[in-house]
Amino acid sequence: MMKAFERLRRRFPWLDHAIRAQQRYNAAQGDTYAAGITYLTIFALFPMLMVAFAAVGFVLASRPRLLAEIDSRVKSAVSGDLAPQLLSLMDAAIESRTSVGLIGLSVALWAGLSWMSHLRWALSHMWGQPHTKMPFLATKASDLVALISVFAASLLTIGLTALPAALGLGGPLRLLPVLGSLLASWLLFSVVIARLPRQPVSLRGATRAGLLAAVGFEIFKQVGSVYLEKVLHGPAGVVFGPVLGLMVFAYVTTRLVLFATTWAATEYGADAAVSEPAPADSANGPPGSD
Hints:
The chain is mainly α and about 290 residues long. Helices cover about 80% and strands about 0% of the residues.
């Protein structure tokens, strides 16, 4: 059995490449990094929601007619004592919009920088790069620029996927935004794989891996949309479906990017075994997190 499998690996170079990339991914503890980054992704959502609520509060405070219309709709849609309670909560949220926004923005910035730092360390580890100490302020500034760029590009790719339904496109025209999203994802993942590691690598060497991650990401987004349509019909699905879907989305996307990175590292001359972090690094955490 093993001899037959070895013959298949010699006959199909892509199969041998995939196996070596998976071995490298396992040696670099890719699943552990993916799980940690997923946790930080979910954690960062709460302060972002605080910022969103504060933004809505500022909008409503500046538009009293819209606020009065919302009040009347709530009173007509909700009966009993619940309507005054909801309106009281909404008024309290509007009054505290400044403090909620500042707290949310501060925590979101901290959580986002922590997320980006761990992602960059994970990508560096997939490439087998040694840990080099960098200046604190320069590291955080670099992480902030990378965070804003990745966030904007991610919104673009997700928006292009939802564009056909928003415009009512059908037939062959429905494929145009999907192709645009695929190209945007390809560029995004190629740059992430090549430029986010602490020691940037050749962008040319990451394009194939970026395409691999982009195709997997687009397939996963289509499957994920079908999943949400199925689970959001029942009461349990409304409560737990989006949360579980978000966790799965973050984990699978992170895993795709990390595996694609090991694919690129295996293909472009980084076949040496991934070096384990030194004891001091393990004690202090990922580089850039201090």
